Amino acid sequence: MKIWQTRSWLTWLLSPFSLLFWLISQGRKWLYRQNFLKSYRSPVPVLIVGNISVGGNGKTPVVVWLVEQLQQRGVKVGVISRGYGGKSKDFPQLVTAQSSAEMVGDEPVLIVQRTGVPLAISPNRQQSIELLLQQFELDLIISDDGLQHYALQRDFEWVVVDGERRFGNGFVLPAGGLRELPSRLNSVQAVICNGISAQAGEYQMSLEPQQAINLKTAERLLLSAFQQQPNMAIAGIGHPPRFFKMLQSLNIPLKNAVGFADHQPFNETQLSELADENTPLLMTEKDAVKCRAFAHENWWYLPVSAQFSAEDTACLLDPILQKLGK
After folding, report:
1. Where along the chain is ATP bound (predicted)?
2. What CA–CA distance (Å, rounded) separates 219 from 259?
3. 289 annotated to bind ligand
4. For residues 193 and 182, is the Cβ–Cβ distance under 8 A?
5. pTM for the full model?
6. 188: annotated binding-site residue?
7. Is position 87 annotated in a ligand binding site?
């Protein structure tokens, strides 16, 4: 939300509610630390990839990257997710590549389709972990989001920060977009900056697309194929302008760009009206998992992959591998 990026009269009007939110969240956190509220310790180590702000910061690409890196090193990984945006009430449940994004959420389906990792969803993270461990022999559990879910004990905490928006106006909800204050970053094992403005002590990450994939035919094209004509773009992610700016940086001309809410459900009529059959409709991979069943031949998605330097990759993975004895 734009009002969370600057300070205005509305910010100060809402600031007492932000103070109340902060006091409640800090009190709840203290109760868990003092064991007045029960927390769960997993039989295997847990790593949380989360954030301190509302909205998409790039957590899912980090989870995909981390799963792939650990799989390459022989680590047996499982992932848990809340399944946000899904309509299912059946918890916990395993997610497969054929699962409905409408039922289990778009991000879990994307992660499984990209990596083949065992993944379970439930608002109760303990239930998801127990389900995974009943059916798979795992070395590590990665939690997609859940930094503030203190009912789950953790061994590692990674926080992803949007390099462009950073921490907005610095207020916690509802006057700002923060769940916790930036000082929370002092207690995590890694701060990953998604963008070009990593600060001292942060790990620089970039999201790079290599090609476009057709939703209906699975045909793959170089991105240069879309530079010679106007295109339509949509994005139902936490910060749609990031996708549109990426397209523009790739010299892909846009006839129009429409942003939707994060986890927005789509239907054929809604999207087919945006682009005629001669105009490519470009979307994110996260949107594509919700549209394959009714896709048209002019619909394409651009999968992105997280990129880190070799030095940062080693620094991020070494503590995990040491913990696991790998």
Report:
1. 53-60
2. 25
3. no
4. no
5. 0.94
6. no
7. no
